[in-house]
Amino acid sequence: MGNHLKGQSSPYLLQHSENPVDWYPWGDEAFEKAAQEDKPVFLSIGYSTCHWCHVMERESFENADIAEILNRNFVSIKVDREERPDIDSVYMSVCQALTGSGGWPMSIFLTPEQKPFFAGTYFPPESRYGMTGFQDVLLLIADKWKSGRDELTESAGHILAHVGAGTDKAEGIVDCFLPERAVRIFTESFDETYGGFGSAPKFPTPHNLLFLTLYAQIHRDESVFSQVKKTLEQMRRGGIFDHIGFGFSRYSTDRYYLVPHFEKMLYDNALLILAYGAAYKASGDGLFLDTAEKTAAYVLREMTGAEGEFYSAQDADSEGEEGKFYVWDHEEICQILGEKRGRKFCRYFGMTRKGNFEGKNIPNLLNGNEAADDFGEEKETLYAHRKSRFRLHLDDKILTSWNSLMIGALSVLYCATGNAGYLSAAKTAQQFIEKNLAEGNLLFVSCRNHVRSGKGFLDEYAYYTAALLHLYEASGEAVYLERAKQICGEAGRQFADESRGGYFLCGTENDTLILKPKETYDGALPSGNSVMAYCLVRLSQITGEEEYRRLAERQLAFLSGEAGQYPAGHGMFLLALLMHLHPMQKITVAAAQEDRKPEQGWKGRIRKELPLYAEVRILPEETEGYRLLNGKTTYYVCKEHVCLPPSNEAP
Question: Can you list the alpha helix ranges (DSSP code H) found in 100-133?
Fold first, then answer.
């Protein structure tokens, strides 16, 4: 058996290559076949570690009867949303417009001209619990295609007109009051008891926490920062954090952060390292630094390849059950650790004979026990035992955008700790991108086994520019700044909307789809437009070049118009706006010889004492204009258009 997915590089597509469904990858061959045979197209979009994608595959795509209906009446296309965010964006907007929600697996029915006329997400194989069965949906649409074609095509036209109506907004002006409005929204939705915002499910959205942290610092607003601290502490205590192997799961299914959706994504962990690192720099709270370092340890141990590249995700499912790999029996713990140590460990981490999750236990510290514990040896023993249970599926494709996030996270962690190992890992991953995912100034979306996928979209360029800026700020090496300027310039060439502002998701090097999306909302990941705003603001402030200032202000004005209705949905843009409104201080350090011993890592030791959001230059000796004061390491600080007297105390 097999279908047209054989030979693809995407782990998600390869998972479906032995289905009885005659899947095609997205491309001309599939749509030409649909046109020639006069069939509608069934488009299924997902990713390789998606729990409900697995469920629908087992129930429907491996079902011979359903496969026969699909093969007889449709041309079926599989898309990996992580490799084709453009397709995912276009048809997710359709799904949300038609159903009021979206998610994966996404199920879209199209004409051979790629025009959608029906959408949904997961369908059970047969109708049950008020949900229409997939088989019934297929038969109904197949019949309608033959007997009521005009109605379907007319519907497709209306859908496209509706979805495309919001893509032609004019530019706005920079709105300085958006941060305050967003803070009010966050405060109104803050869960004072359990942290986080809104009700279950609770997603980490670390970029919102980064914005709130910086806002609290600038305005000296402890009440706002308390929301950040409560949320970060609750996530660390809850089951969303893996207390045995470290790292964070994708989101919490409940209000308490106890029960996670167990898959682990590289992007969540990278962004959370950024959030915990920033909170540590703002507060000095060791719990936040410990969490950031343990999360980095997880990524470097389990999500890192031989050349320093970072893999995409680990699955939630094992042996057909979500979370089975991660949960424990009380008796099992006692058998592995011994009765006395086992009972003590279970008591500390909230595990009982009855269980706290479907008869099993998720280790957690929601009982109030200290997060800094003495169970290191026990955790290592349990970690080794857990690894013997079942090998979790690893999505080992290397995504340029997500690797860029991790490069930025490790650079920030270096600035927080002075540990040169983090900076070295960030540099190694950047070298991997240059070697495998770049050709000159052109970037590619992903690679696997050194086979590249298609050319990059806006997110690749925006995220990689940000990563290079983080590397420059951490290392002080001008080569990263120059490369950031090159990649940012290429983003403008390919994606900028010169007439109405902002950047399109797809550019001059990408396929043409039925719509040209321009994403601005920050969901689980910050939008490419928000990250471009951040990059342009930082480039403007670092270089002092007028062109970057102009581009930054135009992008901030465009996003102000987009964010006006609900500013809390644009956290990364708000972070950039705060940086623009309150320029970060410039710090030049003339290092005394006594602080350069030993030579290894001395810049890191100085850097960790300085603020995170600052332009830092560390000189290996005094120079003209930057003399040592009292023969000691001296700090020259400029902020708010004023240069302060030199000082031997770190600002």
Answer: none
Distances (CA, A) of 406 to 295, 418, 570: 11, 17, 21
Beta bridge partners of 443: 438
Helix (H) or strand (E) holding 443: strand 442-443
Report the C-alpha gap between 542 and 74 in whole angstroms. Answer: 54
Please give the pLDDT value at position 160.
Answer: 78
What is the distance between the alpha carbons of residues 507 and 505, in angstroms, rounded to a whole number?
Answer: 7
How is 552-621 classified by DSSP, letter by letter?
A: HHHHHHHHHHHHSS-GGG-HHHHHHHHHHHSPPEEEEEE--GGGG-SSTTHHHHHHTTS-SSEEEEEESS
Residue reference for tokens 């290592």: 380
Contact yes or no for 60/134 (Cβ under 8 A): yes
Q: pLDDT by residue (tens digit) across 323-354?
A: 889 999 999 999 999 999 999 999 999 999 99
**Residue 345, burial from CB neighbour count under 10 angstroms (0-12, 13-18, 19+):** buried
Angle at 169 between CA 166 and CA 171, to 5 degrees: 155
Element containing residue 117 per DSSP (H, E): strand 116-120
Q: Among the listed ranges 143-157, 440-454, 618-632, which one has the minimum average pLDDT value? A: 143-157
Per-chain mean pLDDT for the chain: 93
Q: What is the pLDDT of residue 320?
A: 75
Q: What pLDDT band is residue 322 in, cutting at 50, 70 and 90?
A: confident
Residue 7: name the closest of 23, 20, 30 by CA.
Answer: 23
The token pair at 343 is 């009972």
Helix axes 134-147, 64-73, angle to 10 degrees: 20
Rg of the chain, C-alpha, whole Å: 26
Report the alpha-carbon distance of residue 383 to residue 478 in Å, rounded: 42
Residue with tokens 């040592």: 628
Within 13 A of 560's CA, how many CA atoms are on the CB side? Answer: 18
pLDDT at 158: 78
DSSP tag of 314: E
Residue with tokens 């560390």: 618
